[in-house]
């Protein structure tokens, strides 16, 4: 359903284990996600706290879903005392399998969580196949 390719993920995990989650070498995950199957849908949820709905872009090209989000500064007159949340544009790509219907993706943004619901394509759903035998002959209609 979902193919994950992040060449630095294992390196980051190892670095965080060695440094105990501290240090400047580990990359912060600006867009953590959960992905799961719920019946005939594949659901992907991205945490985007502090991001406005109009600052999110979704694009699908072939089987690649790209999510871009921008966390903007609070304003010109604001004097920051502590700034730990990263600002700027964040991007994440998901490689979707052929079994998902990318033409019917539903996207909702609520309480800082972007939820994508991607239906399983009809051709990928299990179906019953009727079996005929040589003993059965097609019915003929007299005209």
UniProtKB/TrEMBL annotation:
SUPFAM superfamilies attached to this UniProt entry: HSP20-like chaperones
Record domain SHSP: where: 24-134
Stretches of the chain forming a coiled coil according to its record: none
Pfam families (alphabetical): HSP20
Signal peptide range: none
Domain of life: Bacteria
Family the entry assigns: Belongs to the small heat shock protein (HSP20) family.
Name of the molecule in the record: Heat-shock protein Hsp20
């Amino acid at each position: 359903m979902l193919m994950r390719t992040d060449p630095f993920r294992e390196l980051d995990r190892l670095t965080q284990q060695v440094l105990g989650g501290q240090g400047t070498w580990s990359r912060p995950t600006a867009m953590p996600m959960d992905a799961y199957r719920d019946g005939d849908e594949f659901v992907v949820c991205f945490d985007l706290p502090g991001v406005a709905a109009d600052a999110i872009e979704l694009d699908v090209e072939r089987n690649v879903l790209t999510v871009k989000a921008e966390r903007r500064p609070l304003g010109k007159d604001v004097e920051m005392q502590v700034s730990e949340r990263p600002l700027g544009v964040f991007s994440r790509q998901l490689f979707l399998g052929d079994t998902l219907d990318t033409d019917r993706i539903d996207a909702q943004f609520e309480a800082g969580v972007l939820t994508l619901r991607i239906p399983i394509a009809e051709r990928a759903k299990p179906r019953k196949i009727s079996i005929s035998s040589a003993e059965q002959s097609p019915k003929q209609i007299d005209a």
